[in-house]
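Translate sequence into structure tokens.
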Amino acid sequence: MPHLTPPVNAAIVGYRMGATHAELIHLVDDLQVTAICDTDPERRDAARDQLGDITTYADVEEVAADAGIQLVVVVTPHSAHLPCALRCLRAGKHVVVEKPMALSIAECTAMIEAAQEAGVTLSVFHNRRWDGVFTTARQVIRDGYIGDVFHVETHFGGYRPPSRTWRGDKEISGGLFYDWGAHMVDWTLGLLEGRRMVSVSGRFQKRVWHEASNEDHVEAFIRFDDGAVAHVQVSQIAAAGKPRFYVLGTEGALVDNWAGHVDVSARVGSHTATFNVDYDESDWPAYYKGLADHLVNDAPNPVTPESARRVICVFELAERSSQDGGEQPVPHE
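Result follows.
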């Protein structure tokens, strides 16, 4: 597919969080930010101050019409991911979308189909696939210390009010799962790599923070084709903590308590050996290095849209289950 001549010219749509993307792109020789798009004139001014000689736009239509832009990075509120991505894909631009990819399975599929029709790359910025805690836990599993994984629990939470920004507005954000839940579900699926999801069920609760439309507590239960199961919980009414990862295997277990290391229990004969493994160093720039290699040298897409759609499948089906009851079959697996 792509074999672009470097440096690849990138535009960032949405500069509030987009500033972080600009910093990461700056670290990659084969990519350069040449344009910023934001509806807020103050953020456009900030982009010029921070990035120097760049073009600024107030409308994504201007980005789509700029023939010099080859890559567009969409870092808008979640409800704007679909229209911005579709407009740029259909204009022949390669597109990166911030996670979560979109608000629904159908929106994800529409993006994937638009990229295929245009013959361009669509990728999703699941940068926390390069977080040290995840890469460490995954390597322990790959190295066979705990045997075949059959049960995974992941948790993120605390007792605090929701954001007063658009992130607390379900119509724009998608709901509580669509913030840190994007990381937790993606990590869960990564710890159970190679398995196919069969069904999802869920429970969504609204009990305390009625000033915001997001849920207070959400959880998803995922069943896989080999019988493995996973439970993902995100809460803003959890007054007591839980491990971030609790993983059971046929020959041991792995637990992460946010402590800078994972705790491993491995069966050795009739005994259990316990030891700690320090987190790897996180490497967020690896995403854009991988993307550049893909666009210039046709290396693999660092995060395929199909893999990112799996996260949205869990969100949507868990909510549907909470409303209707019962397990929901998983499409596109």
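Note: The chain has ten helices and 15 strands.
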